[in-house]
Amino acid sequence: MKKLLTISLLIGSALQGYSQGKITTANPPGLASIKEADLKRDIFELAGDAFRGRRAGSVDEMRAAAWVAQKAQEAGLKPAGDDGTYFQYFNMKRTRTADRSTMQAGDQSLNMGKDFWVIQPVDGHLDGPVTWLNSMADTAANLQGKIVAVKIQAPSVLPAAGMSLWEYRYTASAIRQQGMALRRKGVAAIIFVANDVTEKGIAFIGHNYEDGSYQNVGLPTVTGRSAMNNAKPIPVILLRSGLESAVKQGNVRADVFMETYLYPSVNVIAKAAGSDVKLRNEYVLFSGHHDHDGIGNPVGQDSIWNGADDNASVTVGMLAIARAWVAKPGKRSAVFVWHGAEERGLLGSRWYAVNPTVKKESIVAVLNGDMIGRNSIDSAALLGSTLPHKNSTALVDMAMQANEQLTNFKIDVSWDDARHPENWYFRSDHAPYAAAGIPAIFFTSLLHPDYHTPKDEPDRISIPKLAKMTRWMYTTGWLVSQTAVKPALDAK
């Protein structure tokens, strides 16, 4: 009788935990399917030079998407995209400066993308003398209708020390402040000459300005943070620092052209059925992005921005989770969405959040990952875990429980602070889902010096760290799949 009572108490305790969403298994049954060898093989393929950086809208992104779909099929996932395929295509509208744009300073012909960049796409013609400003103090003079040139000066407020892409943020802030001051003087055009700080980061800075701007077609417009967003367009041009003397010769001629066109990107979507007859119609959504920056300005001898950590790491981690789910299904089903065009403004996740291929109300939680293969093997971050970003305490508790039971990361929540200068919470694919009212969290191992440079290569990935982060995401998803009651949205 005593044994029977003990067993009854244990069963009752387990059932109570189940009803409250507290599953106490430290080892979900599919963990053995997440193998370091598979992760290493896959990331060296996807983030290798053959895919040329997987730039959104390019043939290289399409090839990478086909690779992901093939791997998903091999893992046993079923197609969950449009029309019975693994794919969901969407159009992007890109506005950029046309390659036929030209510029001459003094007697020197300049090359766009090497010597000069147009800050904001615009149609413009310049032909005349340049008024050189020794500093912004010279704006007291009458500059109405003039072509002015000035060396970039430090912005009034510097980016926080240690911020990612520091030189770009410094330059964009300086151009925004100083450009608006010159616009108020009625200038016809502005030429900024790079200072030492800007020149140091010119590879990324120039690459960014060459990109132009992107928007989803068919969704409400999201206003970008260009340096000259709300002012009447005039030509604003950035020159490399070594061209100061050419500008000071006194005359400049430029013809710049804006072009806008549509081209596609693609989400890769697949699913694995759950084991419970009632719960299999609900989904745990695993989220990541498969694109990166493509071919850019070279750093040293390397012009391929491979994006191994950002975000091939999560792409291959999701494939490993897929193998685990197929081998040992959770009670709920899993849907895997590898988003396209994240680097162009979360365009793939914005599209899927509005146009899901499963019923929106059937998505019980979004587990998003971005950059999970670098930094200390003992540390990680979970965003969406603290206010004001947290939208589901129940989901966060399950992620924390999974960590306590299995991975034992020291969790850094400081990047979730609304005052954190990186604004990291809003820079990955969980954000559109959270905005749509779906419980969502963001797994990451945070930034590193190779972020958005050609140095983000697969040989710099810590495979043990990648495997550990993948197991944390999987275990969290497994706990979500097992609970009788789906994670609730918080009231506030």
Automatic annotation (TrEMBL):
PANTHER family the UniProt entry points to: METALLOPEPTIDASE M28 FAMILY MEMBER, PEPTIDASE M28 DOMAIN-CONTAINING PROTEIN
One term of GO molecular function: metalloexopeptidase activity
Lineage top rank: taxon: Bacteria
InterPro entries registered for this protein in UniProt: M28_fam, Peptidase_M28
Domain Peptidase M28: 267-473
One of the GO BP terms on file: proteolysis
Taxonomic lineage from the root: Bacteria, Pseudomonadati, Bacteroidota, Sphingobacteriia, Sphingobacteriales
Pfam families noted in UniProt: Peptidase_M28
Protein name: Peptidase M28 domain-containing protein
Coiled coil: none
